[in-house]
Amino acid sequence: MSSQHTAPETPEPSSQHASPAEASQVRYQERLSVAWWVWLIVLFVGGAGFVALAPISIAMGVVVGLVLVVVIAVVVQLGTPTIVLTDEDLRVGRAYIERRYVGGAEALRGDAARTARGPGLDGRAFMNFRVSIPDLCRISIVDPVDPTPYWLTATRHPDELARAINHGADQIRS
User: Is residue 142 classed as helix, strand or coil in its secondary structure?
Assistant: First the structure.
């Protein structure tokens, strides 16, 4: 499945007299939906439920198979996090941080992403990994009382997320 993604619009210069509606404008949004092959696994589990009970009762096998597919699909969908960046905050799944505490961001792909997930990982970092999304964005945290040095999140569009965060960070600093 493709991700739902809203590319950041070219923001107009910020005004000190921005209205509340403008202040909370979404600069970037992405739903980290699972890859197409995960749905094949869901169907396989439903089929396995059917095969396990079909010798006893075909009807019970069908019911159990369908229930398994529906329940797992609902759980997968409910567990799908979103990334939302506004002028006021950054949300990754259930995690939230005020925009003023968000520093710069860096897009990570390939070997850089593998290193960031493994030997280069700081255990204090907030992590949002997805098995079907290999690319990452590292977002530095500049809150002096927060021990979290950075957020590391999976994203299908790391360059666009980093650009949106860095553009907003430049505006907040100036």
Answer: coil
Domain that includes residue 47, residue range: 36-78
The reported pTM is: 0.74
Q: Does one domain contain both 156 and 127? A: yes
Q: Quickly list H helices, 96-157.
A: 110-117
Q: Who's near 60: CB < 8 A, 6+ residues apart? A: 53
User: Distance between CA 50 and CA 59 in Å, rounded?
Assistant: 9
Compute the distance between CA of residue 157 and CA of residue 164 in angstroms, rounded to an integer: 11
pLDDT digits (tens, 9 = 90+) for 107-153: 999 999 999 999 999 999 999 999 889 999 999 999 999 999 999 99
Quick check: 85 and 5 in contact, CB under 8 A? no
| Chain length of the chain | 174
Q: Which two tokens stand for residue 120?
A: 């280069």
